[in-house]
Amino acid sequence: MELFTPDYGLVIWMFVAFAILFLILWKKGWPAITNMIDKRADLIDKGVEYAQQAKDQLDKAQLSADQIIAEARHRQADILREADHMKDQIVEQARQEARTAAQKEMESARIAIAQERKEAEKQFRNQVSEFALDIATKVTRKQLKDDATQAALVNDLIDEIETKN
Fold this sequence. Notes:
The protein has helices at residues 8-143, 147-164. By secondary structure, it is mainly alpha-helical. It is rod-shaped.
């Protein structure tokens, strides 16, 4: 029962022991504990600062990435516009070359047709001339069967030749 009803001497020794323990803790333990708490607070502050810097860097990287994407889209649009313009130029150039080639072909066809027409006309004239000569020869043979008519015709032709010269 002495624990429930302590003796005054025990209480004083307990108080002295508590005071000595309190002084030791106050001199040695409390500074170590507060030092550890301060270090931990500094570590947490540095971690928060690092996280803030990381967030700022992430925000900057996101802005930079957005700018790069916007620039890439702009370049892509420029390249597509330039490619479309080049396509139009190439198509127009091909059309112009086709027109030029078609005109050259048409001109060469016209020249060939004109030459063929001249050749055909020449052949036609030659054939007509041959027919006319054949007809004239046959007619003259019939008319000039006798020698007197032939001599008169030859004399008329000689007279015409002499009057021309």
